[in-house]
Amino acid sequence: MTLRVDKETGNTSVTELRQVIPPKEQVAYALTLLRPLTLKSDRLAWPKVLDALAQSSADAAGAHAEKITELRTAWGSYPARRMRIMQAPIHPSGAEPTVDAWDNEIARKFLYGDLVHGDDNAELLDALGDDQVVFSAAAMASDGFRLVNNTYQVMHWLRSDIAPEEAFFSLRDSQQDSAEQPE
């Protein structure tokens, strides 16, 4: 985004707004990493992880129990709705498909339909095109990794012996990564 500010008047204007959409393959890979956390039958499913954390925090301070409750609420609404996508036929004959879906629904259909079970949702996904599907799926992946990091932080507070501080996503930056690279 390019924001221009007139120093004399203080008026502002946006001259360019651009959304960078990551490559579809990267988004698909990120979602497949998160998938086990979203399946109730998986041993890594978020309800099971949070139940284990709640048991570990039985003797802990109230702040940890509150964080677990916040995580339970956040995971329960994952992926969050952000935007409603509506698309109607442009041609008067109405031969093109009509779309009326939330972005989180599109992302779920991409993950469970396109990536896991084949083309169960091909009609909706094809009607939208790759950019909209990847945009929606990228938001789901981003939210998922934020939740994983927040869950890991609580795990670290409760059991730093099994969740070391060095593994936080938020503590790793490009300078640290480049400092660890052999020359």
Largest sheet: 2 strands, antiparallel
**Computed structural class:** mainly alpha
Task: Encode the helix/strand succession as letters.
Answer: EEHHHEEHHHH
Count of discrete alpha- or pi-helical segments spanning 4 or more residues: 7
Helix content: 40-55%
Question: Care to describe what's here?
Answer:
There is one protein chain. By secondary structure, the chain is mainly alpha-helical. The protein has one domain. The protein has seven helices and four strands; from the N terminus they run E-E-H-H-H-E-E-H-H-H-H. A hairpin with a 6-residue loop joins strand 1 (2-5) and strand 2. Helix 4 packs across helix 6 (130-158).
Which helices and strands, and how do they pair?
Blueprint: E1 2-5, E2 12-16, H1 24-38, H2 46-56, H3 62-76, E3 84-87, E4 99-102, H4 103-116, H5 122-128, H6 130-158, H7 174-180
Antiparallel strand pairs: 1-2, 3-4
Q: Nutshell version of this structure?
A:
With 183 residues, the chain is mostly helical. It has helices at 24-38, 46-56, 62-76, 103-116, 122-128, 130-158, 174-180, and strands at 2-5, 12-16, 84-87, 99-102.
What structural keywords apply?
4 strands; single chain; 7 helices; 183 residues; two-stranded antiparallel ribbon; mainly alpha; extended
